[in-house]
Amino acid sequence: MAQVYTRDMPVDIDATVMGNRRLSADYNVLAIDAPEIASRARPGQFVMMKTSRGLDPLLRRPFSIFEILRDDGGAPRGVSLLNKRVGGGTSLLYQAESGARLACLGPLGRPFEPVDPPAEAWMVAGGVGLAPFLTLAEALHARATPTMLFYGARHAGELYCVDRFETLGVRVVLATEDGSRGAHGRVTAPLESALSRRPLGEPLKLYVCGPTAMMRACAALAASHGRACDVSLEQVMGCGLGGCYSCVVLARDDSGRPHHTRTCIDGPVFEASRIVWDAVDAH
Question: What does the CA dihedral 62, 270, 115, 4 come to, rounded to 10 degrees?
Fold first, then answer.
């Protein structure tokens, strides 16, 4: 059955860039002053960012909320975004300097639902699919839920912020396609091995975000091992509010019938078994 949650109204603010930590030539973490969004955000939600003050690019871009930033007293002050430079909009966010002001709409979307002990939580991230998992790891840590992160990338230079998860007590399993760090190959290989060793009587839930092929493979593994699995889809979005229908995917309803649904409204988090994977665009 689909998860039920209470949807808060998003807010649209003119946010100030507080800092920009460039992790590499293509990746950065952008911190923005947005207390109205930070105080409402839940793990797995996203914001729609206007990456410039002008009309180019015209549309906003969706970004998972990476961190909830807090002031010295612990009050939510802002959020950070894990960004990969791949086009015009993401390049502008990579270049953004402190003091710049950018329109930010959020929080948006269906969040993750953290499990409580004695269940364990296994997060599976591919590349920039790491973005929604730090807030989830913090929520799981607050519940004292045992947590693992299976994190894969093409090479060691594309593995970021591992220490942030380890500080929260997350057990991290790494994999790189070239073997430069962690297991040699795709992250689904150590995941499959770990699932095979896990007794069915021990409760476990998977949370997955990354390239479509990886999420599809993880969904199949979860199903074959009888495990619950949620995926966070990374569809192209034009508005984030359900008006443009650019993020439509084919999913099954509670009766099993396929129907078209909007990722920005009914997701980005879905039960993996609901997605009609053959109909999801590869990326």
Answer: 100
Q: Provide the residue type at 33 as one letter.
A: D
Query: Cα 178–181–182 angle (5° rounding)?
Result: 105
pLDDT, one tens digit per residue, over 154-199 is 999 999 999 999 999 999 999 999 999 999 999 999 999 999 999 9
pLDDT in tens, 55-99: 667 788 999 999 999 999 999 999 999 999 999 999 999 999 999
129 lies in the same domain as 101: no
DSSP designation for 116: P
User: Phi first, then psi: what are they for 96, rounded to 5°?
Assistant: -60, 140
Which residues lie closer than 8 Å to 94 by C-beta, 6 or more apart?
A: 20, 22, 26, 28, 83, 85
Cα gap 207→157, rounded to integer Å:
24
Per-residue confidence (pLDDT) for residue 53, from 0 to 100: 74
Residues 92, 159, single domain; the answer is no
Nearest residue to 19 via CA among 85, 79, 103 = 79
Structural domain total, the chain: 2
Q: Please report how the helices 188-197 and 212-224 are oriented relative to each other, as an axis angle in degrees rounded to 10.
A: 10
Q: Do residues 170 and 39 both lie within one domain? A: no
- Name the domain boundary from 108, 135, 170: 108
Does 124 lie in the same domain as 104?
no
Same domain, 168 and 70: no
- Whether residues 70 and 207 share a domain: the answer is no
Q: Are residues 47 and 136 in the same domain?
A: no
CB burial class (10 A; 0-12, 13-18, 19+) of residue 143? middle
Tell whether 80 and 148 lie within a shared domain.
no
